[in-house]
Amino acid sequence: MFREMRRKKQLLSAEESIEILNSGTSGVLGVYGNDGYPYTVPLSYIYHNSKLYFHIAKEGHKLDAIKNCDKVSFCVISKDEIVPQEFTTYFKSVIVFGRARIIEDDNEKMRAITLLGEKYSPNVPGLSNEIEQSFNRLHMIELNIEHMTGKAAIELIRKKEDSE
């Protein structure tokens, strides 16, 4: 169902891909948008228990697209270093494909938004008040990952191999 990566030497392990998801601070969500055009949007997220979670407004393009088609992709870039003298970019990234679900259960929604809040505002006073105030104004989305591919620049792969 999902394509194999063409440049297999650049494939990151599942562990390396998960580390990128865990350490990333933003990613780009891709959905099936209006009139068949892809719609991509950057957003904050949390990776937890092999799933991604993010929040969206109670109305808007993302919500309409997810309701229309739950198949989505999500990309996180952890390294993006232009190396002009080598005519290349040293990069590391992960792309996941899966199905997005609007969390309907309030307890589950609270767990997800709390995880998200703790990632971006750890130990910050007032987090629970902020969550409580915004709780009814947003949806939490769970992305169930069906396929994940991590990739790095061949130069980074070679450097890693040389150091081992």
Word description of this protein:
There is one protein chain. With 164 residues, the protein is α+β, with helices and mostly antiparallel strands. Helix content is 31%, strand content 41%. It contains 5 helices and 8 strands. The longest helix is centred in the C-terminal third of the chain and has 15 residues, at 106-120. It is globular. It starts with 10 loop residues before the first strand and ends with a helix.
- The helical percent reads 25-40%
Overall pLDDT level: 93
In terms of structural class, how would the helical and strand content be classed?
A: alpha+beta
Measured by DSSP, the beta-strand proportion falls in 35-45%
Order of helices and strands: EHEEEEHEEHHEH
Question: Radius of gyration, Cα only, in angstroms?
Answer: 18 Å
Summarize the biggest pleated sheet.
8 strands, antiparallel
Q: Which outline best applies?
A: globular
Could you give the distance between the termini? 34 Å
Task: Determine the number of helices (DSSP H or I, runs of at least 4 residues).
Answer: 5
Low-confidence stretches: none
Q: Total number of β-strand segments?
A: 8
